[in-house]
Amino acid sequence: MSRKLNKLNALAVKNSPAGKYSDGGGLWLHKRGDGGAQWVLRVTVHGRRREMGLGALATVSLKEAREAADRYRAMVRENIDPIKERERMKRESLRNLHFLKDIALDAFESRKASLREDGKAGRWFSPLAIHVLPKLGNMPVSDIDQKDIRDVLLPIWHDKAETASKALNRLSICLKHAAALGLDVDLQATEKARALLGRQRHKAQNMRLFIILCKLPLLLQVIFQTMIKMYRKPIHG
């Protein structure tokens, strides 16, 4: 491993033709003939030479590549294989990543006992399964905000008002369940989404229809009494 560091500069990185260029300390820039380029770090761990990719030049700058190389060289000095350590950290990160679909299932399981026939009919879970999880199920629950919820429920907010309200309610329960598990979630996200979505038109229309139906017996009674009075009137020839 060369002792001299920071051999390259931004201009050389940008304008150098295809080839392999050392920045020192085991950090190399591999430039291909098709214009692509990749950062590679060469290290020796436990007497074994290893190469690890640090990302493409298009997404990782010279400064970022040097910082990453410094971190991994520090691991080597501690006799830690940086490639295995990076893989371990990635696996650990995935284990700690809680997706909404997993939280929703766990929340459902915790409530099955209070649902009719343990929720086998699917009424509790179906608003989530049909309208929410297809789009948000693979998102980490801690990343979900009111805009995500608004966007997924907007297509049914007015046309399927009751279903949309149930989906929003179930989603609120899921977020509370995630918070109880110790996850960092926005418990106000559903209420914020409700504010963004606005009032449901069909809900108001249904209420007006309900009022009309409630008054219908009285209206029919008035009509019936009027007809009786008409038929009771004497007919003068």
Report what the structure shows.
With 237 residues, the protein is of the alpha+beta class. It folds into three domains: 86 residues, Double Stranded RNA Binding Domain, CATH 3.30.160; 99 residues, DNA polymerase, domain 1 (Orthogonal Bundle), CATH 1.10.150.130; 29 residues. The chain is built from ten helices and four strands. The protein has a four-stranded antiparallel sheet, covered by helices on one side. The protein is elongated. The mean pLDDT is 86.
Give, in spatial order, the strands making up the sheet with the most strands.
1-2-3-4
Query: Regarding CATH, which class of the largest domain?
Result: Mainly Alpha
Q: What's the CATH architecture name of the largest domain?
A: Orthogonal Bundle
Helix content: 40-55%
Count of discrete structural domains: 3
Q: How many β-strand runs?
A: 4
The arrangement of helices and strands along the chain is HEEEEHHHHHHHHH
What gross morphology would you assign? elongated
Q: Given the helix and strand composition, which structural class is it?
A: alpha+beta
CATH fold-level label of the largest domain: DNA polymerase, domain 1
Look at the structure and give the mean pLDDT.
Answer: 86
Q: Measured on Cα atoms, how large is the radius of gyration? A: 33 Å
Which superfamily, in CATH terms, is the homologous superfamily of the largest domain? Answer: Tyrosine recombinase, N-terminal domain
Low-pLDDT segments? none
